[in-house]
Amino acid sequence: MNSTTPNTPNSPQKAKKKGPLRTEAIVPFFIVVALIFVYFHFFFDYTLKKTFEFAGYQLLGAEVDIDKIETSFFGGTFRAQNIQITNAEKPTHNSVTIGDIRFGILWDGLLRAKFIVNEMAVEKIEIDSPRKSPGKVKPPAKEVAKSNQPSTLDKASQEAKDAALKGVEQQYSGNALGDIASLLSAGSGGGNSLNGLEGTLASKQKLKEVEADFQAKQKKWNEKLKALPNNQEIQALGQRFSKVKTKDFKSPAEIQQSLQEISEILKDANQKYQTVQSLSNDLNSDLKSFDQQMKDLDALIKKDTETLQARLKIPQLDAKSLSQAIFAQYMGKYLRMFNRYKAMADQYIPPDILKKKKTAPDPSMVPHPRARGVTYEFGRPNAYPLFWVKKVSISSKAGDSPYSGNIQGLITDITSNQALIGLPTIATLSGDFPSQQVNGLFIKATIDATQSESRITFDGKVGSYPLESKQLITSPEVNIGFQKASGHLETQGELKGLKDFSFTLSNEFQKVDYAIQAQNSTAQDILKNIFAGIPTVTLNAQGKGILPLLSELDVNSNLGPELQKGLSKQLQKKIDEAKAQLKDFMDKNVGSEKAKLSSQVDQQKAQVEGQLKKTEDQINAQKSQGNTKMNQTQKDSTNQATKGIEDQLKKAIGPEADKKINDLKKQFGL
Amino acid sequence: MSLLLKQIFQFFRLLNSDTGTNPLAAGLACGLILGFSPFLSLQTLIVLICCFFFRIQLGGALLSAFFFKFIAYLIDPISDPLGRSVLESSTLHPLFVSLYNIPFIPLTRFNNSVVMGSGLIGLILLVPAFFLFKAGIIKYRATVVAKYKQSKIWKFWAATSVYKWYSKYEQFYG
Question: Looking at residue A480, what is its pLDDT?
């Protein structure tokens, strides 16, 4: 192996001694630099374009296409052209198309590892433009789960969706208009019979259990009552008391004996009293548990009544319920969409940026400490944050393309550290899309993380926009929607700490052409007549709560009162009949039995309580007699003892004994 | 790739030869810095350029970096709190504010607690590691290589014509 080394003495060619600098590395170094240059010059833009398209698809759940991306390393510039975002609900169209995005990055910032953009230009905005070919839409999370492990985003968005849906469904359980249609087309009770449903009543089952329990308890109470001290036993106590000597004692031993006898009789009386007390306590405990069972039974009766009401399809014919029922599906869709974007923000926006409240970490997303660490920003006044786009100017002119609009907008201070620059992110956008008949668009949003809790506010308005084939209610019995309408929308809202959400919404639909279809032609005619008299529909909603659920959601619409007015003539009688039928059914199966049981319970309770009280009073009377006797005995014995001592003193002292005894008494204060 | 493999083979060849203990030890010590630093950082670039232009054994540096990357991964629970305590030190705060706001220095990502902690550990261990590696190489050559060269298997291999041809080739073109 020595022969392989360059400096061995046997080597025919002595290697030249090499210095500390590796001069032969210069050529490879330049080759590496050239390769890097070639990559960035020819392939980097393409790689970036593909990366953005992939990330966009993953984030938005719909295909994102970018025609061209141009970057310049030395100029620090970026330009993306014709960005098309597929509409996930209508893949043949784009939801938004942005013609041009360009900005320059400050080298001054890059040298400090900061991404600083003075001004970004966003131009040529189009909405709802058709695509050359339908865009790819990401399958829903549930479908993904069948084949693969769902991604964390999918899971988060699905959970948010489910929770939001649950919230809306809880709020508007049942389909009131579907039920109304059924009732219109059928007789009382919607044609549904209650026959054969007796066995399904949970309250009836519970009533049987309570009855069985009551009978068992009744037996127990009767047995215990038998064990109570009877009249003779209590009278015997009195007789024993009367036999005890309480006066004319001849010796202290007699007094002692009497007191002992009284104590023993009192002890017996107390034992009997405790027996009565124990039974009384048992009875009270049993009665409490029984009361609870009766309350449970009442709750079950209520639940059964509601279930049967749903089964009979008896609708609520009040304006509010009708308004909520009509707009539940319409609003639920937007709430789900909002929750989806909120879930995305929760997952992808770093915690420090929006000061998200701490939540339990998702185990599948726990990063390794190597990747985590803590990154500090050592800011100082006028210093750059890690990321800062100072200004985004949005402009678009109608006529550039058939789908573009007149849009002016400004977004200021998109940054990773609002506290450092002391400015919130504010976005304003206004304009029209004439070809789509969208006019008076105005959006203002503020994202403020300069305080301890992040606050996002939004204020939006659309003067007018067209609605086509918008379905409000879809159910097997009835479908109601807007065939055509012109909408006006105003909304405001606030989201604190990415959790606490409140909003108001005011929506007005004019020149409404309804699309109404009901299974039954009578119902269809009635509904068509009613809706024909409602050319303008208003929807006012406000809600607040901790996302994804909205604990308070109030929906009002003029459709509610109008429908109530129109339907009450047709339906009120049928509804009353159905409710009466339901009441009869419940009374027959549960109500009468429950009343009977309640009466039995009250009767038994009165009987047991009366007997207990009577026994308790008798024992107390005997105890009182015993205590009187004991007091009398003690008094008598004290008097006798005093008299005996005085007599002995008189004998010992002589004639002046009375005087001396009185003096002595005075001395002792007696 | 072949360039990297060549460097790694060169490292083993030099390790088993009689010369070049300093380049080898320096390479291994530089690998320690590389292993303890994030891949995309200024200090990694500087160390790689040094390995490239100075006579530091690159194969040794890469092998050592590979090994120390695992060590750095294991000692993250120590590096993180160490980095935090340094970065949160009020005495050093003005220095960090200046460093953070001057060009290039933020590219080291010194403001991350793990990077700062592992970087400090790497720097502290750099010089002792160089001397330890040097002593280790000398010891290795004196014991393992010498003993191996005395073995019958090696003598048999060294006597073969294949080996002789290879030796000649090495002398002229190696």
Answer: 82
The answer to whether B26 and B130 have CB atoms below 8 angstroms apart is: yes
pLDDT for the residue numbered A347: 65
Closest B-chain CA to A28: B52
Delimit the domains of chain A by residue range. 23-127, 317-364+377-569
Angle between helix B42-53 and A26-38 (nearest 10) = 140
Work out the average pLDDT over A98-106. Answer: 91
Structure confidence by residue, pLDDT tens digits, A242-273 = 787 777 777 777 777 888 888 888 888 888 88
CB pairs under 8 A between A and B: 112
List all residues 6 or more positions away from B2 whose beta carbon is below 8 Å from its beta carbon.
none
All residues at 6 or more sequence positions from A242 whose CB lies less than 8 Å from its CB, including other chains: none
Name beta bridge partners: A85: A64, A96
Helix H or strand E encompassing A227: none
Reference B24, options B152, B133, B150; nearest CA is B133
Whole-number average pLDDT of chain A: 78
What sign does the CA torsion over A654, A658, A660, A661 have? positive
For residue A665 the two structure tokens come to: 């008494």
Does the structure's ipTM exceed the value 0.85? no
Domain-wise residue ranges, chain B: 2-142
Q: Cα separation of A162 and A108, whole Å?
A: 47
Residue in B121, B114, B122 with CA at minimum distance from that of residue B46: B122
Tell me, yes or no, if A111 comes closer than 8 A to chain B by beta carbon. yes
Q: Please give the single-letter amino acid code of residue B46.
A: I
- As a whole number of angstroms, the distance between CA A388 and CA A382 comes to 12
Evaluate if pTM is beyond 0.95: no
Nearest CA distance, A423 vs chain B (angstrom)? 20
- By CB neighbour count within 10 A (0-12 exposed, 13-18 middle, 19+ buried), where does A89 fall? exposed
Q: Cβ contacts (< 8 Å) between A4 and chain B: which residues?
A: 13, 17, 167, 170, 174
The answer to whether the bond into A548 is cis (omega within 30° of 0) is: yes
Taking residues A331-342, report their average pLDDT. 72
Of B62 and A181, more confident: B62
For testing the chain B interface, which of A107, A376, A386, A416 should be mutated: the one with the most B CBs within 10 Å?
A376
Stronger pLDDT, B51 or A331, i.e. the higher one: B51
Q: In a mutagenesis test of the A interface, which of B4, B37, B101, B151 is the best target, namely the one with the most A β-carbons within 10 Å?
A: B101
Write the CB contacts of B78 (distance below 8 Å, at least 6 apart in sequence). Answer: B117, B121
